[in-house]
């Protein structure tokens, strides 16, 4: 699904069409960037962008999600409902400052994070779990944090 910034205001924020698609297993959300010079328009647009991302909530059965070029400052609150996700790719989300909470994804096997130039915050729990000796040891038993994770790029 391609999302042009000029069209996001046309989305029906109450009509969650993707949320009803329980047989949708792969979703790619790609935003096409349009440069803005007016800072008031950018601030106003930021709220619209976040609302558009919230409106694009997929069904919890989703297995793979690609978010590319998302221009919002934070990810949607529905990330916590993607408990069946296996592959997650977040790329070129230039304005995102916070990674969504990812500690509830028991089936996650591959996580790719690239091009998040303004990323300032990663969950403290996520950092502790990735830095722990247990997580770094190939011979260690699965932890409750990403117990299926095979790849982190």
From TrEMBL:
Classification via InterPro entries: LRR_dom_sf (IPR032675), LRR_R13L1-DRL21 (IPR056789)
Domain of life: Eukaryota
Pfam families noted in UniProt: LRR_R13L1-DRL21
UniProt domain R13L1/DRL21-like LRR repeat region: residue ranges: 12-115
Name of the featured protein: Putative disease resistance protein RGA1
UniProt lineage: Eukaryota, Viridiplantae, Streptophyta, Embryophyta, Tracheophyta
